[in-house]
Design goal:
Layout (H helix, E strand, L loop, with lengths): L1 H9 L4 H22 L3 E4 L2 E4 H24 L4 H20 L3 H23 L4 H6 L7 H28 L2 H21 L2 H7 L10
Antiparallel strand pairs: 1-2
Helix pairs in contact: 2-3, 3-4, 4-5, 5-7, 7-8, 7-9
Organism: Candidatus Rhodobacter oscarellae
Function: Plays a role in cell envelope biogenesis, maintenance of cell envelope integrity and membrane homeostasis.
Family: Belongs to the YciB family.
Length: 210
């Protein structure tokens, strides 16, 4: 872990470039879906909806941006690796069975898996968030434990919410939720933790609080 952190410090990249690599595939998926959602494509005698074709394009695009991020920074987080693995798995099932429901399940599995991992750490009296984020967000252990419990509950909520939306609403509604709802939800959640950060933040060497 120390080697990964040191390498990441040596190979910092422009924050806007990192944001583009992180969000680019999601935005591309949304734009492509809007253009192809009403189209039907026949390949080798089998009809595929625009959603299936967009999913097929999303998989290599996410793999490419993850690889580029690794080449530029020298490291990729375990969360990004797990996300890529689940995208390949559920995206592959979606294409193989020509059934969009598999890809819609992906966020459920991602958030459920993250919640389970964090939950195991909590049972052990540990915060896995602290392990991977303490360098950029110095905070007392008690604060990390509180944040980890909140994040675990938040991930469970997102997993359940995704299930409700894809099972009860249209594909358009789910795509909008996946593209904008999840991103906005995560942003708002961490904004609401500002008081926690202030209460348990550790003052760094330059006099700033983490």
């Amino acid at each position: 872990m120390t080697e990964e952190i040191d390498m990441a410090e040596e190979k910092k990249i422009n924050p806007m470039l990192k944001l583009a690599l992180d969000m680019g595939p999601i935005i591309a998926f949304f734009v492509a879906y809007l253009r192809l959602r009403d189209e039907v494509f026949t390949i080798n005698g089998t009809e595929y909806s625009g959603f299936i074709l967009v999913t097929a394009g999303f998989i290599p695009l996410l793999a490419l941006t993850t690889f580029i991020l690794y080449r530029l920074t020298g490291t990729v987080s375990k969360m990004q690796i797990m996300t890529l693995v689940l995208v390949v798995f559920f995206g592959g099932l979606t294409i193989w069975f020509n059934d969009e429901r598999f890809f819609k399940m992906k966020p459920t599995m991602i958030y459920a898996l993250f919640a389970a991992v964090l939950g195991v750490g909590l049972l052990q009296g540990r915060s896995y968030l602290q392990i991977v984020m303490s360098e950029v967000l110095p905070m007392k252990h008690e604060g990390w434990m509180i944040l980890t419990r909140r994040v675990t509950g938040f991930f469970v909520f997102l997993a359940l919410l995704n299930e409700v939306i894809w099972r009860t609403m249209s594909t358009d509604a789910w795509v909008n939720f996946k593209t904008f709802g999840l991103t906005a939800g995560v942003f708002v959640f961490f904004m609401l933790q500002s008081r926690l950060f202030q209460t348990y933040g550790i003052e760094t060497a330059d006099g700033e609080e983490g």
